[in-house]
Amino acid sequence: LHDGGFTDPTDDNEPMPPTWHNWMENTEVYKITVDMKYSDIEVPTIDNIRNAELIGMILLNERNVLCVGPTGTGKTLTVIGKLSRNMHKKFICDFINFSARTTANQTQDLIDSKLDRRRKGVFGPPVLKRQVFFIDDFNMPALEVYGAQPPIELIRQWMDFHGWYDRRNIGEFRTIIDINFAAAMGPPGGGRNPVTPRLLRHFHYLAFTELEDISKVKIFGTILKFWVDRTPTLSEFYEPVLFSTFEVYATILKELLPTPAKTHYTFNLRDLSKVFQGVLMKNPEVTENLDEMLRLWYHECCRVFQDRLVNDQDREWFDTLLRHIINKRFPVDSKEALGEDAILYGDFLDPTTDFRQYVQITDMEKLSNVLDHYLTEYNGQSTRPMKLVLFLDAISHVCRISRVIRQPMGNALLLGMGGS
C-alpha cells in the first residue's frame, strides 16, 4: 500500500490518495538461457518477491529479521539473493552458517574479524557503512549441559547490551555499533532446537510457508518449458509431464511416511526439483519421440524417489504408480514405452570425448566393457588396486552414483549393511 503522505502532491496541493499495487507489477518475464547452471535458476514468484521486499524494508529500518519455514521453501535463496544483489550500497553483507558443532568462541571471533575499531572500546563496519550478518540454520547449535545454546546466547548478548566482553583483555567490554542480523531457521525438531524467547523478541518474523501449487507450477513450469520447447516435436507434452511429476510427488508425500525402519522417508520440494534437474541433463534437441522422453522422466523419478526406498514391496508400489500415471496422462501404453529392461542413463560410455552427452544406455555389454576399462585404468594408477567383479546390480549402482556426481551440489548417501 503506497501511503498518500509520501507521494507528490496533486495540482491542488492535496496529497495523492493511497493506492494498492500488485507485487508482480514491474517484474520482467524471466528468461532461462542454455549456459545457466540449474542451481542459479531463480524464477520470480509472488512469494519470493514479496519476502525479499519485506526483508529489505526491515533491514533498511535497522531492525533484525528472522525467516522461519520448512526446508525447500527458499529462505536462504531469497535472503542471499536480496543481500548480495538488491541492497543499497551502504550495506556490507556477510554470510555465516551455524551447525550443531558451532561454538560461541568461533562465532565471536568470526564477527569480530569483520569489524574495525572506531574508537576506544567501540567497534563497527567502516564509517557510513552498515554491516548485515546473515545466519543460516540459526537453531542448529547443540544444547550445552544446562540447555542453552552458547552461540545463540552470544547473539542475544549483543541484542540486549550492544556488545560483548573481549576474551583477550579480560574485563574490557567491546561495544559493537551499526550492525544487524538476518537469520533463517526451520521449525524445531529433527536436530533443530527451539530458540530462547529472550532472543526471539528482538526479531521481526517472516514466515515462509510451503509453496502453493500456483507458485510450484510457475517455477517448475518455466524450467520445464524451456527444455521442452527445444525438443523437435514434443512441446505439446509439456503440461502432462509437469502435472505427472506433481502427482507423483503429492502421492509419495501422502503414502510413504517415515517409520522407525524407514526414518529417511522424508521428502520435500528439493526432491521435486531434482526430477526436473535430471530431465534438464539430457540434450532436448536429440529427444525426438515421446517414448524416449517418458523413459527419461521415468528414470529420473526412480533415481530421486525409488532409490530411497528400502524394500521390494515399496519399490514395486512406486513402479506401479509411475506406470499408472503414464497410462492415464499420455497417449501410449506404459509397457511399450518403457520396455522390459532396466532403464539406465549415463554420460561415460565414450571415454575419449570431452563433451559428455547424458544418454540412455541400451548396450549392456558395451557398458560392462567400458566400466572394466575404467577399473583397469584406475588399478594401473593406484597403489591399492580394487579387485571388483561388476555384476548388474553393481553396474546400475555405478550409473546412479555417477549421475549424482555430475550434478552441481549433487551429494549421495549410501545406506546398506557392511560388505554390501
UniProtKB/TrEMBL annotation:
Residues 250-330 form the Dynein heavy chain 3 AAA+ lid domain. This is Dynein heavy chain. It comes from Ignelater luminosus. SUPFAM superfamilies: P-loop containing nucleoside triphosphate hydrolases. Belongs to the dynein heavy chain family. Transmembrane segments: none annotated. It holds the Pfam family AAA_8. One of its GO terms (molecular function) is dynein intermediate chain binding. It comes from the Eukaryota. Residues 1-20 are annotated as: Disordered. Residues 386-420 form the Dynein heavy chain AAA module D4 domain. Signal peptide: none annotated. One of its GO terms (cellular component) is dynein complex. One of its GO terms (biological process) is microtubule-based movement. InterPro entries: DHC, DNAH3_AAA_lid_1, Dynein_heavy_chain_D4_dom, P-loop_NTPase.
